[in-house]
Amino acid sequence: MQTTLAYWAPDINTLTTVLLPGGSSWWVTDAQNGFYQLWITCEANLVWVPAALVEPNYDAVWQGALLPPAGN
After folding, report:
1. pLDDT digits (tens, 9 = 90+) for 24-71
2. What's the predicted TM-score (pTM) here?
3. How far is residue 46's CA from residue 69's CA, in Å, rounded to a whole number?
């Protein structure tokens, strides 16, 4: 994933100050309106990021498995 600010909802008008660093790995929990919802930690709310900034993980576990359609 590229470095990006997170959103509270799958809407460009809900930008937060939460910065997610590029090269990090997150769990995608939902997809809609061209955004992916991410689980980033147990203590945090779920956040959204533009789907265009997220790419598959090519580690030994996920091996580049496709991400769900983001509805865009």
Report:
1. 888 999 999 999 999 988 888 999 999 999 988 888 988 988 888 898
2. 0.86
3. 18
Buried b or exposed e, range 36-47, using 16+ CB within 10 angstroms: bbbebeeeeeeb
Is 22 in contact with 1 (CB distance < 8 Å)?
yes
User: Which residues constitute the domain of residue 44?
Assistant: 4-53
Does residue 40 fall inside a structural domain? yes
Q: What is the C-alpha to C-alpha distance for residues 63 and 16, in angstroms, rounded to an integer?
A: 31
- Check the CA dihedral 10-23-57-60 and report its sign: negative
Say yes or no to pLDDT of 1 above 70. Answer: yes
Q: Is 47 helix (H, G, I), strand (E, B) or coil?
A: strand
Strand partners, 35: 32, 50
Q: Find residue 38's DSSP bridge partners.
A: 28, 47
